[in-house]
Design goal:
- With 244 residues, the protein is an alpha/beta fold.
- The chain has helices at residues 35-50, 69-86, 95-107, 160-163, 171-175, 192-204, and strands at 2-7, 12-18, 23-29, 57-63, 90-93, 114-120, 125-135, 144-155, 167-170.
- The chain has a five-stranded mixed β-sheet with strand order 3-2-1-4-5, sandwiched between helices.
- Strand 6 and strand 7 (125-135) form a beta hairpin.
């Protein structure tokens, strides 16, 4: 019995994790434009490496972002479709949650420390959320963090208040070091193994984990407004004296 986790919020990451949180197989590719073509082969590879048939999966976890529309959608649609075909739950976990939890492990943070997790939002903006460490190690050896502020999106130059007193991690900070002081050895992108462990711990605690995407702003490409038909136009005004 195993849990499959997918994330396409930045690069493409796939992990297969046992029900106890043990990592069985993992793959990733630093692909930012061809998520759809990259994801399916990685899923097949982790299942083959672990010798697990997809019918043995108990849940599929998807990173819910925040992230730009196109790449994020690939992972979410794949996770939902696979879960539906197998009759198992699809669980959503924010990539910022995963980066913050990973930072606790990687950087040796302790309860009470605060973390500002960031991701690239383009347009010189970052997605961000601030967390407080609750426990260095919780269920399934996964750190426990609680959300303090966010998630939100905004200019990197405007996050000085959120960064103050926090350990800053994530790719958003790496892109704008002049505004956000990235911690040494900080994790940059979500780890699919951490996504899976967080999802298992939250599922076991009875926490709802919807797979709705965290876009935080409208997509760049939108449907054009419907063109008005001639019949919808208001009648032309009749000139004075006309028709007399």
């Amino acid at each position: 019995m195993a849990v499959l986790a997918l994330d396409t919020s930045a690069a493409v990451a796939v992990a297969l994790v046992g029900e106890g949180g043990e990592r069985l197989a993992v793959r990733s590719a630093d692909e930012r434009r061809r998520h759809a073509e990259t994801l399916a082969p990685l899923v097949s590879e982790v299942l083959a490496e672990a010798g697990v048939d997809r019918t043995a999966l108990t849940a599929v976890v998807a990173g819910t972002g925040p992230a730009p529309f196109t790449g994020l959608r690939v992972g979410l649609v794949t996770a939902r479709t696979l879960a539906l075909s197998l009759g198992i739950p699809a669980l959503g976990v924010s990539g910022l949650d995963a980066i913050a939890a990973q930072a606790v492990s990687d950087l040796g943070l302790t309860p009470g420390d605060e973390v500002l997790a960031t991701a690239d939002a383009r347009r010189r903006e970052v997605y961000w959320a601030r967390y407080r460490v609750v426990a260095h190690e919780g269920p399934h050896a996964t750190p426990v963090v609680e959300l303090v502020a966010g998630p939100d999106v905004g200019p990197a130059a405007g996050l000085a208040d959120q960064a103050a007193g926090a350990v800053v991690v994530g790719e958003g900070a790496a892109l704008y070091p002049e505004h956000l002081p990235l911690a040494e050895d900080a994790p940059l992108v979500p780890d699919a193994t951490v996504l899976a462990r967080l999802a298992i711990a939250r599922r076991d605690a009875g926490v709802e984990q919807p797979t709705e995407p965290l876009y935080l702003r409208r997509p760049d490409v939108q449907e054009p407004a419907a063109r008005k038909r001639a019949s919808d136009a208001p009648p032309a005004a009749t000139p004075k004296g006309a028709g007399a």
